[in-house]
């Protein structure tokens, strides 16, 4: 929509109303601010939602893999063969033997639920989710037979334990005696305290060498499952289908979608609902633009009538007022992008400030799983948000512009 020279001049004048139209300028300013806030809110909300999902997926898949092969009786005796067959499948990047058992940890009279996980030392050291996450001690001290373990930071706080503390791990399924099954209690020394950033994991996880876990759980040379990692997590069913046929008689495969279905469905629903609700701000901004343009048209009726008598076309008048409204919306979109990116970049400080003002904890790790507030801005999504805001703005200008173009110059000049 190209404007002629005089149309650009008039549109520029109408964007800066005179003193007599100060109220119109105020309403237009509110419209710009509304668009800015709507765009900024959508960018921030979608960035946080995307970051939350991506960070949670990375943490969960980093610890649990994209799929696991579990034995029907809780044990995989021929786990080396299964691991080799899994590695040979195209798309599979790793197959890691794993032992995981819910037990109890005790220290100085305190007893806490613990999820004991046994891994080979090289798998612990090379795991990208665990690498560099020690806040005290080192994973390198977890040598088989040393009776040393690593525990999550939240679990250490709950137990009141630290590096060098001797904690007891209680296995209720111990050895059978004439008096019944006696719990198996083994003492371990804490060699490392880690924090992966997922509250539930930091609150419960205990890592130990796989051989020590086999001894603790009386598994012999068996493992409980094999973790499978792929380079195509979105196509995990297709990648693991050949392996499912090979382990059909001894176990079953569970992928990340099945393990965390409710969680990721809730995140997806929350993202959709939040986007819809926040988009209402843009609708309100569009109504503000309609109001300000209608007021501008009413204030400029005499000018419009004069322009019509001088030969201005209806389409030219429509272009003028569409340009005025769209310019307000475009300025609001630009300001909203800047504000949104600033909030995303300084989100931790913003969350802390809101918490100080309201007295409420904005990001509670116990409720949100992750320790820190994540964010991941999607460029295509940002472009879509800006395009939607501009579309709403453009649609909001059509009725006032049509109203201006429909002004009858004869009636206006006769009676006004």
How many alpha or pi helices?
16
Shape: elongated
Strand order, main sheet: write it out: 2-3-8-5-7-6
Outline the biggest β-sheet. 6 strands, mixed, barrel
Give helix and strand order, one letter per element, not per position. Answer: HHEHEEHEEHEEHEHEHEHHHHHHHH
Please state the CA-atom Rg, rounded to the nearest Å: 32 Å
Structural class: alpha+beta
Distance between the termini: 32 Å
Number of DSSP strands? Answer: 10
In terms of DSSP E residues, the strand content is 15-25%
Mean pLDDT: 83
Which residues sit in consecutive blocks of at least 5 with pLDDT less than 50? none
Helix content percent band = 55-70%
Would you kindly provide a written description of the structure presented here, covering whatever features stand out?
The protein is an alpha+beta fold and 416 residues long. 56% of the residues lie in helices and 20% in strands. It is built from 16 helices and ten strands. A six-stranded mixed barrel has the order 2-3-8-5-7-6. The longest helix is centred in the first third of the chain and has 43 residues. The radius of gyration is 32 Å and the shape is elongated. The mean pLDDT is 83.
């Amino acid at each position: 929509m190209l404007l002629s020279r005089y149309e650009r001049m008039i549109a520029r004048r109408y964007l800066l109303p005179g003193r007599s139209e100060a109220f119109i300028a105020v309403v237009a300013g509110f419209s710009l601010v509304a668009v800015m806030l709507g765009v900024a809110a959508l960018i921030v909300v979608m960035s946080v939602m995307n970051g939350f999902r991506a960070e949670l997926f990375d943490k969960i898949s980093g610890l649990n893999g994209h799929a696991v092969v579990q034995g029907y009786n809780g044990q995989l005796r021929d786990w080396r063969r299964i691991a080799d067959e899994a590695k040979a499948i195209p798309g599979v990047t790793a197959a890691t033997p794993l032992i995981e058992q819910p037990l109890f940890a005790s220290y100085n009279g305190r007893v806490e639920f613990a999820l004991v996980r046994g891994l080979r030392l090289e798998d612990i050291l090379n795991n990208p989710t665990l690498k560099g996450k020690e806040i005290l001690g080192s994973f390198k001290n977890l040598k088989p037979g040393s009776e040393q373990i690593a525990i999550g930071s939240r679990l250490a706080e709950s137990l009141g334990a630290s590096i060098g503390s001797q904690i007891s791990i209680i296995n209720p399924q111990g050895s059978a005696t004439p008096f019944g099954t006696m719990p198996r209690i083994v003492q371990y020394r804490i060699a490392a305290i880690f924090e992966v950033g997922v509250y539930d994991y930091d609150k419960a996880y205990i890592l130990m060498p796989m051989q020590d876990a086999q001894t603790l759980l009386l598994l012999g040379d068996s493992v409980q499952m094999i973790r499978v990692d792929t380079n195509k997590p979105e196509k995990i069913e297709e990648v693991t289908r050949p392996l499912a046929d090979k382990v059909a008689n001894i176990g079953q495969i569970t992928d990340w979608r099945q393990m965390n279905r409710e969680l990721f469905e809730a995140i997806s629903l929350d993202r959709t609902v939040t986007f819809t609700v926040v988009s209402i701000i843009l609708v309100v901004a569009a109504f503000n633009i309609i109001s300000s343009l209608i007021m501008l048209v009413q204030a400029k009726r005499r000018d419009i009538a004069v322009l019509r008598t001088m030969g201005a076309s209806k389409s030219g008048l429509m272009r003028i007022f569409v340009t005025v409204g769209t310019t307000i919306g475009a300025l609001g979109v630009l300001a909203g992008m800047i504000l949104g990116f600033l909030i995303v970049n300084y989100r931790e400080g913003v969350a802390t400030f809101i918490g100080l003002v309201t007295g409420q904890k904005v990001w509670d790790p116990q409720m949100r799983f992750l320790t820190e507030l994540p964010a991941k801005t999607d460029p295509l999504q940002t472009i879509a948000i800006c395009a939607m805001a501009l579309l709403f703005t453009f649609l909001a200008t059509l009725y006032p512009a049509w109203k201006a173009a429909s002004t009858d110059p004869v009636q206006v000049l006769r009676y006004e």
